[in-house]
Write a structure and sequence with these properties.
By secondary structure, this protein is α+β, with helices and mostly antiparallel strands. The protein has a single domain, classed as TATA-Binding Protein (2-Layer Sandwich), CATH 3.30.310. It has 4 helices and 10 strands, in the order E-E-E-H-E-E-E-E-H-E-E-H-E-H. Strands 4-5-6-7-1-8 form a 6-stranded antiparallel β-sheet, with helices on one face. Strands 2-3 form a two-stranded antiparallel ribbon. The relative contact order is 0.21.
């Protein structure tokens, strides 16, 4: 897959700063290279051998060119720990649970979809399967 996605935590319609300790805990077992603060790019490798460049900022974790397979398990774990949502560039937002909808920007609330936060479920949803 060569689309981009963003992990964001919304509150009151605005992105909220992410808990960097939770980001580090979720990505830590997979990190190949990263700076101490994770802000200058992170390279992760999943057990199935795929490497993924991850961009981390105060309010967002962004991934471009995400591979099939275990990357989605890492994504599900990250989203769950952060109580965040997934925003693909070409699809409506993906929510962990219905209660998250109220925190989204008004223009995103109607089209957002709730998807069970497991790797295979997110992968199927994003691939249209």
């Amino acid at each position: 897959m060569s689309r981009m996605l963003f992990v964001l935590r919304y509150r009151n319609g605005e992105p909220e700063p992410l808990d960097m300790e939770l980001v580090r805990e979720a990505l830590g077992p997979y990190i190949v290279t990263a700076d101490e603060d994770l802000m200058n790019g992170v390279l992760i490798r999943t057990a199935d051998g795929h490497e993924v460049d991850v961009d981390v900022s105060e309010v967002c974790v962004a991934v471009n060119r995400f591979p099939p397979g275990q990357f989605f398990d890492v994504l599900a774990q990250l989203v769950g720990r952060l109580e965040a949502s997934v925003t693909p560039t070409d699809m409506p937002m993906i929510l962990r649970e219905e209660e998250d909808r109220a925190h989204l920007p008004p223009e995103a609330q109607e089209k957002a979809v709730v998807v069970t936060m497991t790797g295979p479920t997110i992968e199927r949803h994003l691939s249209g399967s």
